[in-house]
Each structure stands twice: as structure tokens, then as C-alpha cells.
């Protein structure tokens, strides 16, 4: 191994399989310690992370950080009484103390009828490789070089770009083991790399900021440093001299990077915790038509090199490919075993979240959607958290562009878009084929027939 590779190895794992073996052995020791203290069930999660991050601004290095993190979590059950404790210390006395603390907590908690491991029959039976391990053997000097090249490409794109909000490059590797007293042991490893650039154009109160980023599980999945810098510059310059809009009801096209937030609001509304607490506007909504009849969302946990691909969820339950929405109808909720028991239902294998959602397109690319909208608001940025999960009322700050005659005319900002999520879902007119690959929620741009836009 050359000197650069030796330096870079500090930011990944030289032998991940050996570390996974060690974590698996550790998990079994902790489970045995829990059983010895009288726990009827127990589960252990062990994780280790390594990474490198570099930040530059205006041609100068601001930070270089190398990280190594570890976490050990132990959860025990005494019947239906639960206790949890965690540590990052692998010394034997610390591990023993962690198990003892979890047991002490469980002994003093109340019985919870929904508490306990997921059913043993639901555990995943096989390990699968989804091509998620691609370490980037890059040292700090090379990372700095790439970050500076990215920022330089952006700053040199247009004379109106006079400042930078910084460029960051990061690489990380994670390994983890989850084990429980059903005999389940799951081992996973993954990498993720990113490069982002934020630029500032204009002066005084006319300044505008925007940027771009790329990420991937493998370095070759990322856009080049020059491409990221140029895209950040294009987006920043395009926002200069924004106008406001007259308040009114207009069609709204959410660009793909903004559109995934709409799907995120759906996931939150159909997730177990919000449902059993009855803090969701979609309580008792399975089987209801929420979207147009052509609309569908499918969960694909077995996608090769997917950002959230996995054979099992956070409880060891086997994942499966299934529809969340089909024919516009909500097919199921998003549940782990605890929330499922609270609702009198079965887990959907989603403890820890959803895995690679794909929103099916029914239209062409971004340009085609702009032409289809004809006249209306293109949203490229959303601000604030103005979503009421109980009622579905939606009100968020936004920026983007005004579209007239099927073409982008000028930038707009200082506006608020408002509606109700149930009506917004039903009012979706098109989903584009321009999928943004930088998220586990894979969707193209989404066109809504009408929203209230508050401007001047």
C-alpha cells in the first residue's frame, strides 16, 4: 500500500469483515450478560464509523477533520418492561455496567403491552450484498485539492460571483451489527461520499446565495468537482434580480430536489408513532384514495447500490418490496413492531424508516413539465417548517422562478406557498422522469394544479 493509501486508510476500515466479526462476537457476549441477569429478551446494536471532511472558502482551507466513532446500545426486556443503555467504551467493566444499567431501568419501568422484540418468525433469514461498500482512498491533501478546484470552477464561472459560502468534501464508512435473543445476527457495511459548493453573487441587499452538491456510495457515482462548481454558479447567478408575485392561486411545479419533501410529509403522516398517537391527518387512511389513479409509490429495499438498501430493518425483520401507494390508493402504513402492536396491526419491516421509495413518473423530463405547466410558479427552494401534521395544513416560504408561455421568465423570492396536504396530494397532475438520485426518496419534479401563493 502506498503512502497516500496508508493515510487514507485512517478514514475507512482496513479489514471491515474482521471488525464485523469482532462486533458480532461482542453482541453475543452482551446478550449472554443480559440473560444472566434475568432478561427474558434482549437486543444489541454495535456500530463504528470513520470519516474525513474538508471545508474550504475563498481559496483557503478552513477545516480538516478526521473522525472515528463507536456506539454500543443494549436494550433488555423483563417481560414487558423495557430498559436501554449505551456506551462507546469497550472496556469490560464499562460493558458490564451498560448491561446492568439497562436491566436496572427495566426493573423500575411499568409494563408496556406493546414492548418486546419483533416476532421471531419475521427475522431475516439470509445476508445479502447490495454493493454499498466502496471506500474512497483519498487523503486530506487530495480532498483539499478537489474542494479548491470545485470552488474555483464556480467562482470563475461569472464575474458577478464575488463571494463563496464554502465548499465541503466528505467521505465516510460505517459498519454495524444488530443482534437479538431470537438468535438473529445482522451485519452491514456501507460508504457514502459527498461534495458540495455554495456561492454568493451580487452585492449588498442584491446578494443571492445558492449551491449544488453531489453524493454517492461510490466515488465514481459522484459528479466531478468542476461540474458541481459550475452547477452551483449557474444556480446562484440565475437567482439575481428576483421579483415578487401578486398573491393568487397558481399552478406550482416542485423541482425534484424540493418535490421529495412532499413525499416526506406523506411518510411522516403514515408512520406508526404519529398514527397511534393520533397526531396525523391520515389516521385510518389505508384503503383510501389519496392521489390520482395513475399515481404510485413503491418501496424497493433490494436496489443494488441503493442509498437505503437492506435485507432487514432495525429490529431484524426481513424487508420486502411492496407498494405504499398503488392506483392512487394508500396500501399500508409504515410500521415497526412497537407501533404495529399499538395499532393492532403487523410490522411492515420499517423499524428505522423506509427503504428506497420510488415515485413512478407519468410525464417527461423537467423541460417537458415546465411546458406542460405553461404559466405558474417553479419552486426550487423551500424554507421553514410550516406543516401541521394533525390537520395537513401546509404553509412554507419558497423561492424559485416564474414560468410564462412554458418557459422560465425570471426568479422570484419572498413568497409563501400554502394549501392542505390532502388536497395537494389529490391535485398532483404530473410526476416527471427527472429523478434526483441524491436521496432514498427517488422522485422527479411534481406538478400541482393549484396552490395559494402569497406575494405582494
Would you mind describing this structure in some detail?
The chain is of the alpha+beta class. The chain has 2 domains: 3-238, PmbA/TldD superfamily (PmbA/TldD fold), CATH 3.30.2290; 242-456, no CATH class. Helix content is 25%, strand content 35%. The chain has helices spanning 3-8, 16-36, 92-107, 140-155, 225-238, 256-269, 272-276, 337-343, 366-373, 421-426, and strands spanning 41-57, 60-78, 81-87, 161-180, 185-201, 208-216, 248-254, 297-299, 322-326, 329-330, 357-359, 376-383, 393-404, 407-420, 428-431, 441-442, 446-454. Strands 3-2-1-4-5-6 form a 6-stranded antiparallel β-sheet. Helix 4 (140-155) packs parallel to helix 5. The longest helix is centred in the first third of the chain and has 21 residues, at 16-36. The protein is globular and about 70 Å long.
Set out the fold topology.
Layout lengths: L2 H6 L7 H21 L4 E17 L2 E19 L2 E7 L4 H16 L32 H16 L5 E20 L4 E17 L6 E9 L8 H14 L9 E7 L1 H14 L2 H5 L20 E3 L22 E5 L2 E2 L6 H7 L13 E3 L6 H8 L2 E8 L9 E12 L2 E14 H6 L1 E4 L9 E2 L3 E9 L2
Parallel strand pairs: 7-12, 11-16
Antiparallel strand pairs: 1-2, 1-4, 2-3, 4-5, 5-6, 7-17, 8-9, 8-11, 9-10, 12-13, 13-14, 14-17, 15-17
Helix pairs in contact: 4-5
CATH topology of the largest domain: PmbA/TldD fold
Count of helical stretches: 10
The main sheet orders its strands as 3-2-1-4-5-6
Which spans of ≥5 residues are poorly predicted at pLDDT below 50? none
Secondary-structure-based class equals alpha+beta
Which range does the strand content fall in?
Answer: 25-35%
Mean pLDDT: 95
- What's the level 1 CATH class of the largest domain? Alpha Beta
Named at the architecture level, the CATH assignment of the largest domain is 2-Layer Sandwich
Our count of domains comes out at: 2
EC number: 3.4.24.-
Protein name: Metalloprotease PmbA
Domain Metalloprotease TldD/E C-terminal: 247-455
Domain Metalloprotease TldD/E N-terminal: 42-106
Amino acid at each position: 500500500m502506498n503512502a497516500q493509501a496508508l493515510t487514507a486508510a485512517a478514514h475507512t476500515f482496513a479489514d471491515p469483515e474482521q471488525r464485523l466479526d469482532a462486533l458480532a462476537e461482542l453482541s453475543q457476549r452482551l446478550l449472554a450478560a443480559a440473560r444472566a441477569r434475568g432478561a427474558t429478551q434482549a437486543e444489541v446494536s454495535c456500530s463504528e464509523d470513520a470519516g474525513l471532511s474538508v471545508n474550504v472558502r475563498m481559496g483557503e482551507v478552513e477545516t480538516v477533520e478526521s473522525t472515528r466513532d463507536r456506539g454500543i446500545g443494549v436494550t433488555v426486556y423483563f417481560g414487558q418492561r423495557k430498559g436501554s443503555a449505551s456506551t462507546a467504551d469497550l472496556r469490560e467493566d464499562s460493558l458490564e455496567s451498560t448491561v446492568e444499567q439497562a436491566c436496572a431501568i427495566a426493573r423500575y419501568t411499568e409494563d408496556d403491552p406493546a414492548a418486546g422484540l419483533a416476532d421471531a418468525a419475521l427475522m431475516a433469514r439470509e445476508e445479502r450484498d447490495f454493493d454499498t461498500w466502496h471506500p474512497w482512498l483519498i487523503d486530506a491533501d487530495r480532498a483539499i485539492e478537489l474542494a479548491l478546484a470545485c470552488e474555483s470552477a464556480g467562482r470563475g464561472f461569472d464575474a458577478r460571483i464575488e463571494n463563496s459560502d464554502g465548499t465541503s468534501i466528505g467521505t465516510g464508512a460505517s459498519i454495524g451489527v444488530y443482534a437479538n435473543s431470537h438468535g438473529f445476527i445482522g451485519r452491514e457495511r456501507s460508504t457514502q461520499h459527498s461534495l458540495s459548493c455554495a456561492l454568493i453573487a451580487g452585492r449588498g441587499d442584491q446578494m443571492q446565495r445558492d449551491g449544488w452538491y453531489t453524493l454517492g456510495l461510490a466515488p465514481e457515482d459522484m459528479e466531478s468537482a468542476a461540474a458541481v462548481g459550475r452547477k452551483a454558479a449557474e444556480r446562484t447567478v440565475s437567482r439575481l434580480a428576483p421579483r415578487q408575485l401578486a398573491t393568487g392561486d397558481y399552478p406550482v411545479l416542485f423541482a425534484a430536489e424540493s418535490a421529495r419533501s412532499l413525499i416526506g410529509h406523506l411518510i411522516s403522516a403514515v408512520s406508526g408513532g404519529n398514527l397511534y398517537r393520533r397526531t396525523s391527518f391520515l389516521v385510518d387512511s389505508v384503503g383510501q384514495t389519496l392521489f390520482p389513479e395513475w399515481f404510485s409509490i413503491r418501496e424497493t429495499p433490494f436496489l443494488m447500490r441503493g442509498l437505503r438498501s437492506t435485507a432487514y430493518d432495525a429490529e431484524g425483520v426481513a424487508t420486502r418490496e411492496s407498494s405504499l401507494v398503488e392506483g392512487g390508493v394508500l396500501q399500508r402504513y409504515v410500521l415497526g413492531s412497537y407501533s404495529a402492536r399499538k395499532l393492532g396491526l403487523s410490522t411492515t419491516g420499517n423499524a428505522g424508516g423506509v427503504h428506497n421509495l420510488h415515485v413512478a413518473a407519468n410525464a417527461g423530463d423537467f423541460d417537458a413539465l415546465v411546458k406542460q405547466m405553461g404559466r405558474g410558479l417553479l419552486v426550487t427552494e423551500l424554507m421553514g417548517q410550516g406543516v401541521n401534521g394533525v390537520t395537513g395544513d401546509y404553509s412554507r416560504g419558497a423561492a424559485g422562478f416564474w414560468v410564462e408561455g412554458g418557459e422560465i421568465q425570471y426568479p422570484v423570492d419572498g413568497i409563501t406557498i400554502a394549501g392542505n396536504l390532502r388536497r395537494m396530494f389529490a391535485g398532483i397532475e404530473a410526476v416527471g422522469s427527472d429523478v434526483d438520485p441524491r436521496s432514498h426518496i427517488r422522485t422527479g419534479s411534481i406538478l400541482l394544479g393549484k396552490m395559494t401563493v402569497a406575494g405582494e
